[in-house]
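can u pls check wat happens w/ flavin-adenine dinucleotide
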Amino acid sequence: MAEDIFDYSADVLVVGTGAAGFSAAITAATEGASVIMFERNDGIGGTTGASGGTAWIPNNASLRAQGAEDPRDDALRYMCRMAYPQYYCADHPTLGLPERAYELIETFYDNGYKAIDYLREAGALDLTADRVAPDPDRPIVLPSGSIVKSFPDYGAALAEEKVAHGRHVSPTPGTASMIEQLAAGAEKHGIEVRTEHQAVALLRNEAGEVVGLELHNRTLTRLAHAHKAVIFASGGYAHNAELVRKNLPGRVFGSCSTLGAQGDFVRIGIEADAQFANMHNAWWKQVPVEASLDSPSPPGIWVPWGDAMIQVNRYGQRVVNEKLPYHDRGQIHSVYDPSRREYPNLVLFMIYDDAVASSESMEGMRRPVPMPDDDADYVIRGDNWQDLATRIDEHLEALGEVVGGVRLDASFSENLAATIERFDGFAETGKDLDFGRGESVFDRAWNGPNRAGSPNPTMAPFATEGPYYCIIVGAATLDTNGGPVINSRAQVLGTDGEPIPGLYGAGNCIASPAGNGYWGPGATIGLALTYGHLAGRSAVAEPAKTI
Ligand SMILES: Cc1cc2nc3c(=O)[nH]c(=O)nc-3n(C[C@H](O)[C@H](O)[C@H](O)COP(=O)(O)OP(=O)(O)OC[C@H]3O[C@@H](n4cnc5c(N)ncnc54)[C@H](O)[C@@H]3O)c2cc1C
């Protein structure tokens, strides 16, 4: 290859302009490298730009400044237990995890707080911790209008959890959004950003080292030369229907990720002979299935709203603590029943009474339950229980293939009556003997308004008369988080276990160090910033390569 064939040339090329990409680019530029970022969309930001901009970072500086401690051993136990419950073993030297998986989590603990301190010092990102001690008199108002009591970790109820609050950091009040801060930081460090440039292939020299990219820029093909390294930070594959069908379990009804999440790094990684992992995982949530007919990004059900509210399957049975965090609850849909040889929870029915529907409150995560004066096509109304069941089944019939032909079982109405009676009993005593709803600090923190005198604010008995309401809900993703495997320097590993020279990855495009876990609010961006930073640092230390 001759230098004059290239349209662009820099020490480090970064693919993607989300949290991972900006963290990598700003770090590399701060360390003295010339950097160009490429983005396939016509604007920057990716899913990060649509996000709340919060990052989960253990042992962060503002947590420590509030006098709290987050010792390494405690944090590692919590993260490993959440990430790999199938391997976790408290007495084992790597807590039962495969060595590489353990090392990636250790690396995150050791470098996460350093990464955000570094970005702050580089003048690119100013984040502050949530309150370590939540204040019941000062609830938190979110930009959406929702009001939550605090932001505990998502596994706050586990024995391994020692620091339930304060690992979550977000843009310091009065500063710009995360993506605006990062974009301004990149500009300050002289980083060139090229939108409408989709990386489609790696360029490799005779030694097999990665030395550049082939890109599509509208109708043109462009070539870019990387003197040192290429860093992929291109998000997941949530909007690539074929990859979703091939890899994710159950059935998926959309994603709130950027439409740029097309899984380009899956194809490019396969061509580069990279190792893959975590392809069956995602950052999960639930959505109204019928809203997914109108949009590839239907509104998320972060925590199902309402106290006289349950989710049941097509047999009229509750299957989950409805107040669990979105990621954990979203996975209930892909549970396989070997006796029935089906996915009985493929879609669930979120049922609530008129007291919930007609409440004006914005406490808790109300959406997508509409305000009393608003209509939503995905809300089914029945005058009484029988009427509701009839209407739900009509909607299922109309959905047909979209829900895999699921219909209510003949036992639905009888079972639902028994389920409601049992739930009402739990609400009276305040104890959910089936799923422990309301026992975790998380369940209560994101819950809606308290009814006076309720022994458990997450539950209330259903009204004895209708109308009743239902939203048909199914699994969806914030994005996927499987892909090529990296090591603790963020180098992409080949199938031979060795780093592919000059190739790095971070964020949702790689096999997530979190495995199946979602540690707390901001876990995805915390990892993206940290491994982006490590990729940027390591890339600068690479030797220059011949082309
Ligand atoms: C509404 C909402 C709220 C959320 N809130 C939070 C939160 O507060 N905290 C949290 O941790 N997570 C949150 N998430 C999830 C979080 O936003 C993402 O997991 C995270 O931002 C992903 O960062 P990333 O850098 O890996 O990818 P992205 O931010 O998606 O950036 C990847 C970029 O790469 C581009 N790209 C893809 N392929 C190519 C290619 N071939 N060439 C060039 N460019 C390419 C994409 O177009 C995209 O712009 C939220 C998500 C949503 C939708």
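The domain at 3-239+481-540 is CATH 3.50.50.60 (FAD/NAD(P)-binding domain).
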